[in-house]
Design goal:
Length: 211
């Protein structure tokens, strides 16, 4: 997939307009996601750059990958005023525009639901991470509640939610995919965002280590 093919103009504008309203609930989780990071960080699917203000000053550089044109423009604007050094690159999860062993840490935040192939995206993150590098992740995932999980699977298989959500899939077991990709999960916790019955309510936040 080329970066030029990733275009979700309506979703991108809706996301940009309303994501700030969710910061009261999501912001503390972003702080936890990025706490105590250092070195060079690659952030996959940076969106409009909303994470940039949450990075600690101990980070040397963030290389932010974002293929969607509207969100990429917003991310570049956010990078200009970020408290840390941020470089925004055009690229996709299945072909990161970085050499091997280029980063100390990889960050995914509400993006592994949208990549076409999770295994390939995670393999790319392992490639660009230095040996023993850390993956931090904050993702919405398939529910542990059978009834809600069935609803999520139907929304995905029908194509309804992926079309509305900019390619998002709400029924993915992302923590299991991370482990299957050769990362050792060091910590993970589950929580809900919004109403517990919502199809994108179940989330996980954690850290894993490239093996």
């Amino acid at each position: 997939m080329s970066a030029a093919s990733v275009r979700h103009p309506i979703f991108a504008r809706v996301f940009d307009r309303f994501c700030g309203a969710l910061e009261k609930e999501i912001g503390p989780h972003r702080d936890e996601l990025l706490a105590r990071l250092g070195g060079r960080v690659v952030e996959l699917g940076a969106g409009n750059g909303i994470n940039f203000g949450h990075y600690p000053g101990t980070v040397d550089e963030v290389v932010a990958i974002e293929p969607e044109p509207y969100l990429q423009t917003k991310a570049r604007a956010a990078a200009a005023s970020a408290p840390i050094d941020v470089t925004v690159l055009d690229g996709t999860a299945d072909a990161l525009p970085l050499p091997d062993d280029a980063a100390d840490v990889a960050v995914t935040c509400l993006v592994l639901c949208t990549v076409p192939d999770q295994a390939r995206a995670l393999a790319e993150l392992r490639r660009v991470l230095k040996p023993g590098g850390e993956l931090r992740f904050l993702e919405h995932v398939r529910s542990q509640r059978p009834r809600l999980a069935r609803v999520q699977r139907r929304l995905d298989s029908s194509g309804i939610w992926p079309r509305l959500g900019g390619g998002c899939h709400c029924a993915r077991d992302t923590a299991a995919a991370i482990a299957a990709a050769g990362f050792e999960i060091e910590r993970v916790r589950s929580f809900d965002v919004g109403p517990s019955w919502g199809h994108t309510s179940p989330h996980v936040l954690g850290a894993a280590r490239a093996q």
